[in-house]
Amino acid sequence: MTEAVAEKQTAQHGLVAHSDGDWANRVPVQTRSERPKSTNVADFAPVTGREAVWKYTPVAKLDALLNGELDGGRLPVSVGEAPGVSSEWIARDDARIGRAGIPEERAAAAAWSAFSEAHLLRVASEEKVTAVVSRSGLDASPRAAHTVIEAAPHSEALIILENSGSAQLSENVEIVVGDGAKLTVVSVQQWADDAIHLASHYATVGRDASLVHIVVSLGGGVVRLNPSIHLDHEGANGEALGAYFADAGQHLEHQVYLDHDAPHTRSRVTYKGALQGEGAHTVWIGDVLIRNSATGTDSYEQNRNLVLSEGTRADSIPNLEIETGDIAGAGHASATGRFDDEHIFYLRSRGISEEEARKLVVRGFLLEVIAQIGDPATEERLQAAVEAELGESPTALGGA
C-alpha cells in the first residue's frame, strides 16, 4: 500500500495524523501484562490523568513526585533487632536489585531513576522471626526510595514496614521469596494528613514458597500502593490482603496484580475498605493473569467496601485474564454498600445502641484482615487506630 493510499483510508475513517507519532495505528494497552516496563523515567510520557493507570488518581497533587527532582538519599529508617534478619544499604548497581520486577508507570520509574542506595533486608532464619522497620521524620521534601526484602530458601519471617509522619515519598519495594520460604510482608500507612505516598511493590515467589502481602492504609492525604506478585515457580502461593479506612478528603488507592506463570500456583486476594466523610475516595483495581504456562492454577480475588456516610466514592474494578483452560479454579467478586440492616437489628435487639452496633460492624469488617498479620502488638495498635477513626465521626455513622 502506498503512503498516499494509506493517508486516504485514514481520512475516510475520520482520523487525522498528528506530529506526535503514528497514533492512528497504535493499539491501546488492553491488559496488565502488555504494559511497557522500564527503570528510566524518560521512557514514560508525562502523566495527564487520562491514562488507564492514572484516571482514578488526583494527579494534580503528585506533580513533585511525577515531574520534579527527587532526593534519592538514604531514608531515616529504624530496624528492630530480629535473629536471622540482616539490614544493610547497597549501591544501585548491585546485582540483587531488579530481580522481582521493574516499573510499569512513570512514578515508579522516577523513583527508580533517582535513588542512590537501596535498603536490603535479608531473612535467613528457618524459625519464624518478626522484624519491624519504622520510617518517619521524612519531612515534606520530595523523596525517592528503594527497598529489597529477600527471604532465603526455607526461611520464615514477618516483616512489618511502618510509615508515619509527613512525607512526599515515591518508592519501589522488591520482595524475593526463595524456594520453600514462608514470608509475610506488611505495609502500614499511618501517615500525617498532608502526606503523599506512591509505592510499587514487586514480588517473585519461589518453588513451593509462600508470600502473604498485607496492606493497611489508614493515614495520608494521598496513598497509592500497587503490589505485583509474580508466581513464577511451580507450587508458589501468593496472598494479597488489604484493609483501608478513608476519611473526608482522603484518597486511598490500591492496584493489585497476581501473575500466575507456573504450574499449580495458588493466589487469594481480599481487600476491604470503609469510607466516611465528604470527598473520601478509595480505588481498588485487581488484576489476575493466568498464563498458558500456569496449568492447575487456583485463584480468587475479592474487594468489599463499606460506605458510612454521604459524599464518598469507592471505585472497585476486578479483572481476570485466563490463557489456559486447564485450571483448578478462578473467580472474582466486588461489592460496595451500606450496613446490613439485619446485623444492626440483631445487635440492637441485644441491647446495643444503634451507634455502637454500627461501630461493631465496621470493626469486624476491617479486623478480619488485620487479624491475619500475626503480630499481636501490631494488630492491637491497628485495632486502636480503627477505633479512633470510628470515634471521629459518630454522626456520619449514625446517618449511614
TrEMBL record:
It holds the Pfam family SUFBD_core. GO terms for biological process: iron-sulfur cluster assembly. Residues 144-365 form the SUF system FeS cluster assembly SufBD core domain. It comes from the Bacteria. SUPFAM superfamilies: Stabilizer of iron transporter SufD. PANTHER family: PROTEIN ABCI7, CHLOROPLASTIC. This is Fe-S cluster assembly protein SufD. It comes from Leucobacter massiliensis.
